[in-house]
Every structure is written in structure tokens, then in C-alpha cells.
């Protein structure tokens, strides 16, 4: 019995050892499965995250592409329009191409204007005179060199008022366009004043000549180029005396809708 018992005990202990091992083995299996699962979940999470961040990147790229395309569209529209000589945009951000020189013709007072538009200007001035008005063209085409002279004189004047060279340039740009960025260099702009009031200030707007011109200029293809409420867009002070030829169709749209040329070129 003892032997048997011992044997039983031995068998028992053997069994328990085996069980224990298999238990251990089982635990080992559980741990491996757990680790593998965690690993798989982590890998999946990493892949999903990577995919998510990739799609975010794609979205950002697409967004960038969209705004880039939008900008390009706008730019090409401006370039496209600038090929149309009547609508050529000239401002501080869009200087004239180097050496731009239109074919010019002389006005009766000797000043020059683009020969393609001079007839419309003469017709407008003649019709104003028929109304008993006395418009005076005091500035038309200017060469870039002459514009440079005007600009330099303005700097000297500002420095004479005690400004530093840098400040003088900043102030001068507010009064005189930087050479190559003036519409007068383009040959399609004129400054017109009343014979009775020959000053380039805001009071010019109240003269009968300017009142008539503002009302009728679009019929001849001209616009008031620098309106009072558009200085933020044009970058130029209110100039009730400065008229620009853009052609009858654009002039009508611009004057009837109270736009400036920059706005018109983006809209149409
Ligand atoms: Zn002008």
C-alpha cells in the first residue's frame, strides 16, 4: 500500500508536474497571444494614424493647390487682360515693362497721348466745351525719365521738410508715382482741371468741368481712376482730376458699378 501510495503520490506529483507545465505552457501561450494582439493593435493604430496623417497631408496639399490655382488664375487673368492694351494695369505692384513706349500723338496744347485713344479724348473735351465748360489738360503722357525727375524733386522737397532719406521716399511715393508705375507713363491717362480752378486738390471735384466729366467720361471710354472710396485698393490718394482710358465697355461697367480698375480686372 505504501509502495502503491508512494507510487500514487509519485504519479500524482508527476501529473501535477505535467499539469503545472502544461499550465505554464498555457500561460505562455496566453502571453504570446496577448503580446501578438497588442503588437497587431499597435501596428494597426500606427498604420491607421499614418494613413490619417497622410490623408490630412493630402488635404492640406489639395487646399494649397486650390489657393495656388486660384492665385494663378487671378494672375493669368490679369496678364491676359494686360495684353489688352486698353485694360493694362499699371500700379505700384504692376510696373510697366521696361522700355514700354506707346505710339503717341499730340493734343492741341502739345501734350502727348496714346494715338489709339486720342480721338476719344478730343471728342470728350470738345463735347465738354460745347456745354460751355473749360477743361484744361494739364498732364498727359510722361516719359519714365520725366517721372524720375518728378519723383526725385519730391524726395528733395520732403527731405527739405526735415525727413530722413528713407521717410522722404515713403512720403514721396504717396504723392508721385514711382517711375514706371504711373499711368502717365502708359500714355492712357490725363489730368484735367477747370480753367477757373487749376489746383490738384479735392476741391477740383466741385468744379463744373469735373462734375460733367465724372458723369459723362464713360461715354467716351474714360474712368475716374482713383475714386475717394478706393484708395486702399488703388494705393493712390483721391484724384478727382485723373482720368484713364479703358474703352467704352469697361468704362461703363466701372463707372456704373462704382468700381476701380483693379476690382474690374478681377471680376470680369
Ligand atoms: Zn494723373
What does it look like?
The protein has 268 residues and is an alpha+beta fold. It has 2 domains: 1-83; 92-142 and 182-267, Muramoyl-pentapeptide Carboxypeptidase, domain 2 (2-Layer Sandwich). Helix content is 57%, strand content 9%. It is built from 8 helices and 6 strands. It has helices spanning 2-83, 118-130, 144-160, 165-175, 208-216, 231-234, 248-256, 261-267, and strands spanning 104-106, 112-114, 135-139, 189-194, 222-224, 242-245. It has a 4-stranded antiparallel β-sheet. A two-stranded antiparallel ribbon has the order 1-2. Strand 1 and strand 2 form a beta hairpin. Helix 3 packs across helix 4. The longest helix is centred in the first third of the chain and has 82 residues, at 2-83. The model is unreliable at 1-26 and 55-62 (pLDDT under 50). Zinc ion is lined by residues 139, 184, 189, 191, 239, 242.
Strand content: 5-15%
The SSE string, one letter per element, is HEEHEHHEHEHEHH
Shape: globular
The CATH topology assignment of the largest domain is Muramoyl-pentapeptide Carboxypeptidase, domain 2
Question: Biggest sheet, strands in spatial order?
Answer: 3-4-6-5
Q: What is the helix tally?
A: 8
**Ligands bound to this protein structure:** zinc ion
| Termini separation | 112 Å
Domain count: 2
Major sheet details:
4 strands, antiparallel
Uncertain stretches of 5 or more adjacent residues:
1-26, 55-62
CATH architecture of the largest domain: 2-Layer Sandwich
**What is the residue-averaged pLDDT?**
81
Q: CATH class of the largest domain, please? A: Alpha Beta
Radius of gyration: 40 Å
Helical residue percent band: 55-70%
**Total strand segments:** 6
Class by SSE composition: alpha+beta
Amino acid at each position: 500500500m505504501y509502495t502503491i501510495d508512494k507510487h500514487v503520490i509519485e504519479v500524482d506529483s508527476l501529473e501535477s508536474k505535467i499539469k503545472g507545465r502544461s499550465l505554464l505552457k498555457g500561460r505562455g501561450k496566453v502571453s504570446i497571444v496577448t503580446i501578438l494582439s497588442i503588437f497587431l493593435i499597435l501596428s494597426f493604430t500606427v498604420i491607421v494614424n499614418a494613413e490619417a496623417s497622410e490623408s490630412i497631408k493630402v488635404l492640406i496639399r489639395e487646399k494649397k493647390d486650390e489657393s495656388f490655382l486660384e492665385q494663378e488664375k487671378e494672375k493669368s487673368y490679369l496678364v491676359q487682360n494686360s495684353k489688352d492694351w486698353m485694360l493694362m494695369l499699371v500700379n505700384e505692384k504692376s510696373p510697366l515693362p521696361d522700355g514700354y513706349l506707346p505710339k503717341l500723338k499730340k493734343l492741341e496744347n502739345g501734350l502727348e497721348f496714346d494715338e489709339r485713344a486720342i480721338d476719344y479724348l478730343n471728342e470728350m473735351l470738345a463735347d465738354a466745351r460745347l456745354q460751355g465748360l473749360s477743361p484744361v489738360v494739364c498732364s498727359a503722357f510722361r516719359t519714365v525719365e520725366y517721372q524720375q525727375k518728378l519723383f526725385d524733386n519730391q524726395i528733395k522737397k520732403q527731405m527739405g521738410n526735415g525727413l530722413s532719406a528713407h521717410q522722404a521716399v515713403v512720403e514721396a511715393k504717396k504723392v508721385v508715382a514711382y517711375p514706371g508705375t504711373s499711368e502717365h507713363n502708359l500714355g492712357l491717362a490725363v489730368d484735367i482741371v477747370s480753367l477757373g480752378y487749376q489746383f490738384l486738390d479735392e476741391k477740383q471735384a466741385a468744379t463744373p468741368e469735373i462734375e460733367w466729366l465724372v458723369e459723362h467720361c464713360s461715354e467716351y471710354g474714360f474712368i475716374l481712376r482713383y475714386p475717394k472710396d478706393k484708395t486702399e485698393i488703388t494705393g493712390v490718394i483721391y484724384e478727382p482730376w485723373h482720368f484713364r482710358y479703358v474703352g467704352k465697355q469697361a468704362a461703363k461697367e466701372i463707372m456704373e458699378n462704382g468700381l476701380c480698375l483693379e476690382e474690374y480686372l478681377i471680376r470680369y
